[in-house]
Design goal:
- The protein has helices at residues 24-30, 78-90, 140-149, 156-165; strands at 8-12, 18-23, 34-42, 48-53, 64-65, 68-71, 98-103, 112-120, 132-138.
- Helix content is 23%, strand content 31%.
Length: 173
């Protein structure tokens, strides 16, 4: 689904409890806490799929990001959002990603509480053109090195997520 600056997100407090609603535009402009999911998709060889965000995105356009990610719709739970985003962004239908770990809302996530999921999938993927310009598979060591050598090419949330996920990769294999 294409970005809509007027779509409504739940606004949450420091305990990730819903305290109201606001538009995407207002949430991002005011730095309000809200919710998102990220899914890291790995193939049988252990490589992770990354997406290059579309230049049309309002946040971090043109940067590399997790396999798929997105905000929770108002009233939606994290698990449902992860399944929905897999379908919308990369065309993976009906997959049930595994909850991996949670990240508190912080500057690196643009004040998003995030659940990070892992999924084993070989593709092929159907990349949503409004959301994603391209994608690539990287071995974990390659991604770690790329983030270290070209940090400005990667979303701040992905850098934080990968700093944790890289230590837990064996649990998805």
């Amino acid at each position: 689904m294409a970005q809509n600056p007027n779509e409504v997100f739940d606004v949450v407090n420091e305990r990730d409890e819903v305290v109201g609603q606001a538009t995407r535009r207002e949430v991002h402009a005011r730095g309000l806490r809200h919710r998102a999911v990220h899914v890291l998709v790995f193939d049988r060889a252990g490589r992770v799929f990354l997406q290059k965000r579309s230049m049309k995105k309002d946040m971090s356009p043109g940067l590399w990001d997790s396999s798929c990610s997105g905000h929770l719709d108002s009233g939606e739970d994290y698990d449902h959002a992860a399944v929905r985003e897999l379908g919308e962004e990369i065309g993976v239908q009906g997959a049930q990603p595994e909850r991996w770990f949670r990240i508190e809302a912080c500057a690196e996530t643009a004040q998003e509480f995030c659940w990070i999921y892992g999924l084993r999938h070989e593709g092929p993927f159907v990349l949503h053109p409004e959301e994603i310009d391209s994608g690539e598979w990287l071995a974990p060591a390659e991604l770690t090195k790329a983030i270290a050598t070209r940090p400005d090419s990667y979303c701040s949330a992905l850098k934080l997520i990968w700093s944790i996920a890289a230590k837990r990769i064996d649990s998805i294999k």
